[in-house]
Design a protein that fits this description.
- It is built from 14 helices and 14 strands.
- The protein is α/β, with parallel strands linked by helices and about 350 residues long.
Length: about 350
């Protein structure tokens, strides 16, 4: 049989409701670069859900573009960004931030999350150094929710990090590539309004939650920044789509009736089924995750057996012959395919 894929949450196309809307508009003559009524409505829908009518909302083609544009926009040439060692900008973006001339200070984390005490200690020691003016200056604190390991921040954790940012005059930026699954997790105590309240800028990921492509960068407190030329910088970073309505339409569909959160809940529900099956089989977790990314530690034999019929991400080989693997569910994953995986897990 053809292998069932659990490698990523962006391996399928787009939700049928998005396809229907795009097809309906295919022959419509629409202004370019997002200067159209559909994109403007999508922005208003996002403003409504975060309860910030004046928020700055900008669409870009992907997550790496979102991160590089936002960080480049917010930093002066001598300023830097702070993140956890496993942060996406530090591991999987091909040096995109460094390519803009900005240093990354990577700090140890806990289960993929930035620890507020590590952040405090770093900043305290940094500014206690009389020669700190000769170093790149930290200005942005970058976190992801959910993290690279599917773990999530609590509201108190983000409040604590934001308090440190306020103390040191730093900007808190949240990477929301998987914001939907982070917020709809059974372990989450936040909603998207809390995210808008707690940070200075964040983005809403569409690529990994039912859209073909596209992310929405949100400045919930636009009065803090001069956003006049932000779109110009997006263009310079090759993130501005000429047929911008393609992204605007997708976010319009995702946010007009709650589809964005429905997709994420679906992904999380199926991931919990997989998690329970591995737990019942006695397979250890790398981290305790309550989102659509699940990390397990397989023996070589278990890996060989499962890989015959299923594709998943090989995360890290261990010295003892075991292997850390990641199973990821998506908005399009079916119960039928998950049940086939569960049957295989039971026979390990």
């Amino acid at each position: 049989m053809q292998k069932i894929k659990f490698e990523t949450d962006y391996q399928e196309g787009a939700h049928p409701k998005i396809l229907e809307r795009l097809l309906a508009r295919n022959y419509e003559q629409i202004s370019g670069y997002g200067d159209d009524t559909h994109t403007k409505r999508a922005k208003d829908l996002i403003r409504r859900v975060i309860e910030r009518p004046d928020a700055g909302v900008f669409f870009v083609v992907g997550g790496t573009q979102a991160n590089s544009v936002v960080i480049d926009f917010l930093l002066r040439p001598f300023e830097a960004v702070v993140c956890v060692t496993s942060g996406h900008i530090n591991t999987h973006e091909a040096g995109a931030i460094e390519a803009t001339g900005h240093k990354i200070f990577a700090l140890p984390g806990k289960n993929g999350l930035l620890d507020v005490n590590e952040l405090k200690n770093f900043l305290r020691h940094f500014y206690a150094d009389p020669a700190c003016e000769h170093s790149a200056q930290p200005k942005i604190v970058y976190v992801s929710n959910s993290s690279e390991y599917g773990t999530i921040y609590t509201k108190q954790m983000l409040k604590d990090i934001k308090a440190v940012c306020n103390e040191y005059d730093l900007i808190l930026y949240i990477d929301g590539a998987r914001l939907g699954t982070g917020l709809t997790s059974e372990a989450s105590d936040m909603d998207i309004k809390d995210i808008a309240d707690l940070c200075d800028v964040f983005y809403i990921g569409g690529t990994k939650n039912g859209a073909f492509l596209g992310e929405a960068i949100v400045f919930p407190k636009p009065e803090k920044f001069n956003l006049k030329n932000f779109r110009t910088l997006i263009k310079q970073h090759s993130g501005l789509l000429a047929k911008g309505w393609l992204i605007g339409t997708q976010f319009e569909v995702l946010f007009e009736d709650g589809l964005y959160f429905e997709n994420a809940k679906h992904s999380n529900r199926l991931a919990m089924k997989i998690k329970d099956a591995f737990k019942d089989a006695g397979v250890p977790f790398l981290f305790e995750s309550f989102t659509n990314q699940q990390f397990f530690i397989l023996t070589a034999e278990q890996h060989k057996t499962l890989s015959e019929n299923f594709d998943y991400k090989i995360w890290e080989p261990l010295d003892d012959g075991r292997v850390v693997v990641r199973f990821t569910t998506s908005w399009a994953m079916t119960d039928e395919n998950v049940d086939k995986l569960i049957d295989a897990i039971k026979n390990l």
